[in-house]
Amino acid sequence: MRHSVPPLNDKSLLKSQAYINGEWVNAKSGKSFEVTDPSSGAVIGTMPEMDASDIDLAIKAAADAFPSFRKTTGREKGKMLRKWYDLMMENADDIAKLITWENGKPLTDAKGEVSYAANFFEWFSEEAPRVYGDTIPATVPGNRVFTVKEPVGVCGLITPWNFPAAMITRKIGPALAAGCTVVAKSPGETPFTAAALAELAHRAGIPKGVINIVTALQNTPEVGEAITSSSTIRKVSFTGSTNVGKLLMKQSASTLKKLSFELGGNAPFIVFDDADLNVAVAGAIACKFRSSGQTCVCANRIYVQQGIYDEFCKAFAEKVKTFKVGSGYEEGVTHGPLIHDRAISKVEQHVRDAESQGGKVLVGGQKMPDLGSNYFQPTVIRDMTSKMQLASEETFGPVAGVFFFSTEKDVVAMANDTEVGLAGYFFSKDIQRCYRVAEALEVGMVGVNTGLISDPAAPFGGVKHSGFGREGSKYGIEEYLTMKMVTMGGMGQELQG
């Protein structure tokens, strides 16, 4: 059955084609794939199932557009991004409806994502005119040394489904600000949001070929390899799992691309005895259960010190009991479905594994078939141990496992006992402890007394197997630039005349 289209104010934002060289196109093969509503399981539309031949056309379009676009002044690029930002905000309600439709997150959350996503265009519209080089004192008399920053070239961008708008704007914004052209592969689960953004880019007057949005589901591995193996594409930015990131890095080796990867996480969330309990509980709720736990920076392992362990578990579980699970369009719903059945299977596996090893479920713990096949109860489990799957694997779902710890030294060791290092959080009123622990955590981002750290002004990225490179902030544009050094000789001559 086909699901009814959400009542968009502007129905022309609903596109069922890819966007290449300023035109809406189908796959050369004529093939398409179905996109389903995770809430109902109903088919909501189709998108082109593109292959390497389609990607080659998109790469050529981006390459043809690059020589002209790279010469565009920073101020002009800033104006384009600002126009795109304005159009996003004008159409925010419609974009939010599309996000909820294909991703499942509640409409309130989707509206928050649209604002967050648009802010990357606003931020990088202001960074575009501020790409500075340096003048360097030379050691050789008569030489003058300076540097200039130049766009790296055509960029391949691969984005995930959990933030269909924000993940693409966080990459395209700095790429365009730097003067690069892009081929962006939208997620197969949530391609309609990216297509709507492409339509707004078209309206914003961004030149043809500068932005190309390609689509695929079953052919995603082929599309990824076409991007990574292309000698024309000079940089790849990817957000997704660590395993896929390693594969893309290997595929990129033969062409020595510039890379920035934001990969998997296993975020520790630490609550010390001296923390404000109410603040810590609120932080854990926001951090763990945002988007039903389907974020790379959400708390995966919650460590609570012995003095407040029981009190925290009780207060945390009571708060979770107030959640309302259902379709993202329903009034009052706080949490929607997971993205697909594989996500449900992993979440259930982690819960059953914890139970089998002595974990006590305080709330939730079951699927919700009455709502649909992709629903799982928000869950809190206490008495967790390091031997449980959740301790070493990213759950990516609405399951909060609460671990017990005794000392600061012990919990930092447990927090760092993982291959990945994206985000970490802790709560304490001791200012010296705040510095000590923030410096000791092996992660790229730390939240102190807050569970929400995402901000266009803040550099986003990880260490260890969580990848490298930073997105957002003043550092985000650097990922799309190369430095050229110029040495001018014979410049120290005496004045003439």
TrEMBL record:
<dbReference type="InterPro" id="IPR010102">
    <property type="entry name" value="Succ_semiAld_DH"/>
</dbReference>
<protein>
    <recommendedName>
        <fullName>Succinate-semialdehyde dehydrogenase</fullName>
        <ecNumber>1.2.1.16</ecNumber>
    </recommendedName>
</protein>
<feature type="active site">
    <location>
        <position position="262"/>
    </location>
</feature>
<dbReference type="InterPro" id="IPR016163">
    <property type="entry name" value="Ald_DH_C"/>
</dbReference>
<feature type="domain" description="Aldehyde dehydrogenase">
    <location>
        <begin position="24"/>
        <end position="486"/>
    </location>
</feature>
<dbReference type="InterPro" id="IPR029510">
    <property type="entry name" value="Ald_DH_CS_GLU"/>
</dbReference>
<dbReference type="GO" id="GO:0004777">
    <property type="term" value="F:succinate-semialdehyde dehydrogenase (NAD+) activity"/>
</dbReference>
<dbReference type="InterPro" id="IPR016161">
    <property type="entry name" value="Ald_DH/histidinol_DH"/>
</dbReference>
<comment type="pathway">
    <text>Amino-acid degradation; 4-aminobutanoate degradation.</text>
</comment>
<dbReference type="InterPro" id="IPR050740">
    <property type="entry name" value="Aldehyde_DH_Superfamily"/>
</dbReference>
<dbReference type="GO" id="GO:0046394">
    <property type="term" value="P:carboxylic acid biosynthetic process"/>
</dbReference>
<comment type="similarity">
    <text>Belongs to the aldehyde dehydrogenase family.</text>
</comment>
<dbReference type="GO" id="GO:0005737">
    <property type="term" value="C:cytoplasm"/>
</dbReference>
<keyword id="KW-0560">Oxidoreductase</keyword>
<dbReference type="InterPro" id="IPR016160">
    <property type="entry name" value="Ald_DH_CS_CYS"/>
</dbReference>
<dbReference type="InterPro" id="IPR015590">
    <property type="entry name" value="Aldehyde_DH_dom"/>
</dbReference>
<dbReference type="Pfam" id="PF00171">
    <property type="entry name" value="Aldedh"/>
</dbReference>
<dbReference type="InterPro" id="IPR016162">
    <property type="entry name" value="Ald_DH_N"/>
</dbReference>
<dbReference type="GO" id="GO:0009450">
    <property type="term" value="P:gamma-aminobutyric acid catabolic process"/>
</dbReference>
<dbReference type="GO" id="GO:0004030">
    <property type="term" value="F:aldehyde dehydrogenase [NAD(P)+] activity"/>
</dbReference>
